[in-house]
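Recall from the previous chapter that SMILES is a line notation for molecules. Here it describes flavin-adenine dinucleotide.
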Amino acid sequence: MSNYQLYSLLSPTSDFDQNLVCDVLVIGGGPAGTWAAWSAASNGAKVALVDKGYCGTSGCAAASGNGVWYIPPDSQAREAAMLSREALGGFLSNRDWMQQVLNQTYTNVNLLAEWGYPFPVDEEGKPYCRSLQGPEYMAIMRKQIKRAGVKILDHSPALQLLVDAEGAVAGATGVNRQSGEKWVVRAGAVIIATGGCAFLSKALGCNVLTGDGYLMAAEAGAEMSGMEFSNAYGISPAFSFVTKTLFYNWATFTYEDGTPIPGAASQKGRSVIAQTLLTQPVYAILDQATEDMRSHMRKAQPNFFLPLDRAGINPFTQRFTVTLRLEGTVRGTGGIRIVDFTCATSVQGLYAAGDAATRQLICGGFTGGGSHNAAWAISSGYYSGKSAAEYAQKLGEWGRQRSVQAVGEAGLTNNSQHQINTEEVIKATQAEVFPYDRNNEAIVAGEVDVGIYGDTPALVAKAKGIPTRLISQEQVGMNAWLIGKKNGPRSLAELKGQKVATSKGSYLHRYLIGLLQKSGLSDRVTVVHLLPSEAQAALERGDVAAIAAATGTGPLLKSKGYPVIDEATKHPDLPGTSVTVATVAFLAKHPDFPQKWNQIKQASVKNIKVNPEAYYKFHTEVSGYPIDVIKASFPLEQFPEEPFPTQGLQLLEGTKKFLVSQKLAKSDFKLNDWIVPQQ
Ligand SMILES: Cc1cc2nc3c(=O)[nH]c(=O)nc-3n(C[C@H](O)[C@H](O)[C@H](O)COP(=O)(O)OP(=O)(O)OC[C@H]3O[C@@H](n4cnc5c(N)ncnc54)[C@H](O)[C@@H]3O)c2cc1C
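With both inputs in hand, we obtain:
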């Protein structure tokens, strides 16, 4: 397309009712967008900000309020702050980024105090700056950006980005929802601050958060990052949409009959709530909040109590039904990839901030709820505004006048040839993103081609008729540990009448059921199903008497003084194996995969046996477990060089027979028919 054609697409004679030209266009007017606009304007840029709703009341911070990661510059306090979620996030965060965000958030929150934000003060007159009430916060931000000269277009969603002949982003177009008028803003740089995506789940403040910014950025060629960590759910009363979750830390979650649900908790127990909700209602009562706390809680988060008050429920003394509502990337982590400290994206001229940008840099794979999200919105907003202003100023007048074209193709415009039934699209999208159990059993759903996992789930899937083939065994003789709670049972006999947790369908499950059967305890111990992290949390809280723990966790708990009641390696038939399986469809396309896989595996195993210390050091670094725990979990003799060692096949056959006899596997089959023949 020639420059003339590009320009003619959006010439002043084109059909836009409002034409604006500026240095920096900010899309979205929540905390991230307003900090970005303020920062760009303070750096001398001419700035326009467009919001889908009314900047100051739209978005989730305005409706909900935010606890903030506000840590004074004390090195010990900062170190503790960085450490607090590092392991939970799988060590995927970046300390340089965390330090930057802690610094910037501290500076900017102090600025809010100077601007008149009414922080409460303690008896010594010191302000408490770790919490921001949404309406007051956002009203101040609106006032400040207006003061800085930012032009605000309310009720004006952006629908598509504009790019120049080189593909650099150069503005956006959209519509005014109230007047129906179309607008175009040409800009030297654009910042996407459209918040996260909760896709109309009705979670508090999320009605405007449909992921428009992700779509617009992707259409301009931007990359995403951390989207595998985008499935956060908030707890709310089943009859309301208030997803303020902090106070559920003091809740007991129960079944309908009032018995506590083992492992269910707001933190490290939310997927137990999800699992239970799949089959029955879940009740909560805030009975763990002390009398002193109760009145303080009402003052701190009045909106938490509104729906309960309306329903005439006293949450401290009466149980009420709860549910989980999707908050997606609003509290989950993924978003537009940020390439450096300027908050630039992978596309020239395009910046991202707040929930629209990946938060992986400070949260890793874990939610930033309760503190980090607010800090990220403030800091990434500030950095993106400053950098976008500098970039646009370098482009000068040319940046605002260059030839541009719109790149929106899907969803937000009506350029498409196809008629779209909006309701159907919404329904189909929600069916994909709402259900709690979507992320499980990816290989079963055909979303994964090759999996390396425990023999039990692989056998159960095969027995169910899932078309897979077995390529090799990776670890043979894997131990499992039966760990008791502190000051709890020390022997199998003492488990009578108690609850023991395991992950359903895992090799731990097979070990535990086998052990209880051997010990004549099958009918005398209640087995509850929890994910590993939740089982550990339940053990620490004393909710369960013992857990079956896997490699890593077992030796770690042992080193922390938890009693080891039993180990799988004490019984010849109970240790597990880990296996590699591939789908039949994948192997049809890649018939030489098994051979290549086994060649690489053989070379790797030889290598780690020659240099075990280097292997253990590497494993320690990537897993975050201490080296002694890794050594106890992964003895070198458990890694066979051949694809199927005799002991491995014996264990696999024994496990299969056991699973079939227990009706945990649907039907029997011959291992030989499953194994890919070796060439
Ligand atoms: C109930 C609840 C409680 C929370 N509590 C905390 C907490 O205690 N601590 C914490 O750290 N975090 C918390 N969060 C998360 C926190 O509120 C967000 O991380 C933060 O608001 C992100 O700011 P943002 O500016 O990126 O997004 P938002 O505040 O959501 O603002 C996005 C803005 O973009 C606008 N927009 C969307 N699409 C378009 C478009 N196409 N064109 C123009 N504008 C558009 C929206 O109208 C909105 O104004 C909570 C979230 C919820 C839902």
